[in-house]
Design a protein that fits this description.
222 residues; alpha+beta; 12-stranded mixed beta sheet; disordered N terminus
């Protein structure tokens, strides 16, 4: 009886282990859940791998389509705010940002007005952030351990790619409720970037600035 019961329990355990989703399946489910969201908040911090102060931080609230608001901060007190609504960007760099890139003095009113410009003129490296965000599988995924992100139980999934030797992505996927991605940590020998996701499907409050606070970037007037 005892041996028979032991064999039965062992068999059940093997079946349960075989039925558990693979790391790739878990990540695919998480990406699908994220892609279905109607709104999302994304906070990103990039710092040196050795724990140096943050180089860049950003905060983005988006509908993942064409409506979003963001702020990017750099060392030295530089910041750039952006509101994107459809085909239009409203951009507001602060005084320190303007002083750095103008190479000298700026007007007393600098950093107070929003500059209106076509979203199509945004270029990589200018600090402006798209509203869209791609959630898709890549690389080789392996399972990690259990953890908690801000109190929410999560499973870690580690992703590596052949094209980025030494770099790893650690995904933290919620194990209660919908399998949202709560955090992604990318680390290589030079830097560490932490991206946190929150406010899933929360009401989106992104509106254009008051007209009195807006100037056209090309003409410098309203």
């Amino acid at each position: 009886m005892g041996l028979g019961l032991s064999a039965t329990l062992t068999g059940c355990s093997d079946v349960a282990a075989d039925d558990e989703p693979s790391a790739r399946e878990l990540l695919d489910r998480a990406n699908k859940a994220m892609s279905r969201l109607g709104s999302l908040t994304v906070d990103t911090t990039t710092a040196g791998a050795t724990g140096a102060p943050a180089a860049v931080t950003s905060h983005v609230t988006t509908d993942l389509k064409s409506r979003c608001r963001s702020r990017v901060d750099w060392p030295g007190g530089l910041s750039l705010e952006q509101i994107r609504i459809g085909d239009t960007d409203y951009v507001r760099p602060n005084r320190k940002y303007l002083q750095k890139w103008s190479g000298g003095k700026v007007a007393d009113s600098a950093g107070k007005s929003w500059m209106r410009t076509p979203a199509s003129e945004a270029q990589a490296g200018d600090g402006l952030i798209p509203c869209t965000r791609k959630f898709a599988g890549f690389g080789k995924a392996t399972k990690g351990g259990a953890t908690r992100i801000d109190g929410t139980p999560a499973r870690t999934l580690v992703v590596t790619t052949k094209s980025d030797e030494g770099g790893t992505y650690t995904f933290h996927v919620a194990t209660e409720g919908k399998p949202y991605i709560l955090r992604v940590v990318y680390k290589n020998s030079k830097e560490r970037t932490t991206t946190s996701y929150s406010a899933f499907d929360a009401p989106l409050k992104v509106r254009a600035p008051d007209r009195a606070d807006v100037v056209n970037a090309a003409s410098g007037g309203n």
